[in-house]
C-alpha cells in the first residue's frame, strides 16, 4: 500500500480549484495516465465515473465514486473493477485571502503484488505529476477566462 501527500498554496480561489478537480469528464485531457472517463451519474454532491488508466500497453478501467463538498473538498474512492485493491484520494481547499492552500492525499494498493511493487517505485513521482497537472489545468482555464473577459470589455 502506498500513501503520498502533496501541498501547495496557489493564487486561485477555492471554488476555481474545486471546479477543476471535480470536472472528472475532462480528466483524459490533462491527468497523467488517464485515457478515458465515462460519467455514469453526476449531480452537485457526487459523480460516479468509469475511468481508464494506463501505462504504455497496460490499460485498465475502474469505477470511481467522487464525493463533492463545494468548495472545500473532493474525495475519490475506487468502488469496483480494475487492478486496484483500493484507491482513495482527497483534495482539500483552504482559502487564504486571495490564495488557496491545497492538500492532496492519495492512497492506493494494487491487487497484484508485482504491480504494487512496480507502482511503489514510481509513486511519489506520479503523485507529484498529478498535482502539477491540476495546477497547469487551473492556470490554463484561469488565463482563458481572463482573456475572454478582457475581450468582452474591449470597446467595439
Architecture overview:
The chain is α+β, with helices and mostly antiparallel strands and 156 residues long. It has one domain (2-146): START domain (Alpha-D-Glucose-1,6-Bisphosphate, Chain A, domain 4), CATH 3.30.530.20. It contains two helices and seven strands; from the N terminus they run E-H-E-E-E-E-E-E-H. Strands 1-7-6-5-4-3-2 form a seven-stranded antiparallel sheet, covered by helices on one side. Helix 1 (14-22) crosses helix 2 (113-153). The chain is globular, with a radius of gyration of 17 Å. The model has no long low-confidence stretch (mean pLDDT 87).
Brief summary of the model shown:
By secondary structure, the chain is an alpha+beta fold. The chain contains two helices and seven strands, in the order βαββββββα.
Distance between the termini: 59 Å
- Looking at this structure, what is the CATH superfamily? START domain
Tally of structural domains: 1
User: So how many helices?
Assistant: 2
The name CATH uses for the topology is Alpha-D-Glucose-1,6-Bisphosphate, Chain A, domain 4
Strand order of the largest sheet: 1-7-6-5-4-3-2
Rg is 17 Å
Mean of pLDDT = 87
Helix content: 25-40%
Query: Uncertain runs with pLDDT below 50, 5 residues or more?
Result: none
Helix-and-strand structural type? alpha+beta
Q: Give the class-level CATH name.
A: Alpha Beta
- CATH architectural grouping: 2-Layer Sandwich
Q: Approximately how much beta-strand content do the residues carry?
A: over 45%
Element order, helices and strands?
EHEEEEEEH
How many strands in all? 7
Q: Main β-sheet, in a few words?
A: 7 strands, antiparallel
Amino acid at each position: 500500500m502506498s500513501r503520498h501527500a502533496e501541498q501547495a498554496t496557489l493564487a486561485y480561489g477555492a471554488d476555481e480549484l474545486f471546479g477543476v478537480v471535480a470536472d472528472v469528464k475532462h480528466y483524459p485531457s490533462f491527468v497523467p495516465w488517464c485515457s478515458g472517463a465515462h460519467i455514469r451519474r453526476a449531480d452537485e454532491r457526487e459523480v460516479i465515473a468509469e475511468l481508464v488508466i494506463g501505462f504504455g500497453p497496460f490499460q485498465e478501467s475502474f469505477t470511481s465514486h467522487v464525493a463533492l463538498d463545494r468548495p472545500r473538498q473532493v474525495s475519490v474512492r475506487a468502488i469496483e473493477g480494475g487492478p486496484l485493491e483500493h484507491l482513495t484520494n482527497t483534495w482539500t481547499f483552504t482559502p487564504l485571502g486571495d490564495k488557496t492552500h491545497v492538500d492532496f492525499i492519495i492512497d492506493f494498493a494494487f491487487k497484484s503484488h508485482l504491480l504494487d511493487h512496480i507502482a511503489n517505485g514510481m509513486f511519489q513521482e506520479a503523485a507529484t505529476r498529478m498535482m502539477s497537472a491540476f495546477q497547469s489545468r487551473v492556470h490554463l482555464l484561469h488565463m482563458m477566462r481572463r482573456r475572454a473577459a478582457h475581450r468582452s470589455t474591449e470597446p467595439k
